[in-house]
Amino acid sequence: MKTTDNLEIYNDPLQYDRQYDGYDADTRFILGHLPPPGSAVIDLACGTGRISLPVAEAGYEVTGVDLHEGMLERAREKAAEQGLPVRFLQQDCRLLDLSVSAPLIVMAGNSFQHFLTNEDQDRMLESVRRHLEPGGRFIFDTRNPVPSELAEPDRYEEYAEAGGRRIQEVHTETYEPVTQILHCTTERFAEDGTPLGQDGISLRYTYPLELERLLRQHSFRLENRYGDWSGRPFQAGSGQMVCVCRRDEP
Predict the structure, then answer these.
(1) Which of 9, 85, 86, 125 has CA 20 to 30 A from 174's CA?
(2) What pLDDT shows up at residue 147?
(3) How far apart are CA 114 and CA 205, in angstroms?
(4) Is the entire prediction scored with pTM above 0.70?
(5) What's the CA gap between 58 and 25, in Å, rounded?
(6) Core vs surface per residue 56-83: b (16+ CB within 10 A) or e
(7) pLDDT tens-digit profile of 190-233?
(8) Cβ–Cβ under 8 Å, residues 26 and 5
(9) What are the residue boundaries of the Methyltransferase domain, all occurrences included (predicted)?
(10) Contact of 180 with 194, CB cutoff 8 Å
């Protein structure tokens, strides 16, 4: 599977915004790690601008990058509504070609997990490094692989509201240890059991020492690693790895 084929869960930007309405832990963390006011900030896998817009509102020159044009259209609409001059561009994060470099590049929403192969990860980090100013920071998150949680296939149900209807969502998650990829499928049903379709996503897990080696390989120094966006210490059972990395010289 290619990264570009792994985007179907983002086909409804309005639903994405509803799902994450009120969640701002990552935004607050990033707002607390900004460079001097007026600096450039690049927000990778920016989606509908959930982080780009608050950073721009704080007085920064923001460039948001995403692969999904529908998400970018929604981000542009929100920026126009708020009168914020954010530049939103459709590009592959593995092949960035921006006219700006920045002292801060961020990538939230566990988007690091969209890079499914070693080559994908390498190309993305090379791309980030090319656009990060010397001594600049790259802040991103990725889910921490907890073996006990990934060992067995998981199937669970949730309920959501959509268009005034109560929707049953059945989630199935299966992990492949060799590829370190979790395959997730969501099936949706109306209250009477009528199928409403399904979507899926595949996510690569990277282990803590593996991640440290990968970052060093691309001349990033891991300054801090937290267990979540609130800044809790990283532990074996933490749900996330929130990484603050600095670009080393040269």
Answers:
(1) 125
(2) 92
(3) 9
(4) yes
(5) 16
(6) beeebbbbbbbbbebbbebbbebbeeee
(7) 988 899 888 889 999 999 999 999 999 999 999 999 999 999 99
(8) no
(9) 41-136
(10) no
Distance CA 83, CA 86 (A): 9
Bridge-partner residues for 215, per DSSP? none
The CATH class that applies to domain 147-204 reads mainly beta
User: Residue 90 to residues 81, 98, 177: CA-CA distances in angstroms?
Assistant: 20, 11, 32
Residue with tokens 């669970």: 156
Distance, in Å, from the CA atom of 201 to the CA atom of 208, rounded to the nearest integer, reads: 22
State in words which class domain 3-144+206-247 has. alpha beta
**pLDDT exceeds cutoff 80 at 140:** yes
Write down the domain spans for the chain.
3-144+206-247, 147-204
- SS3 state at 78: helix
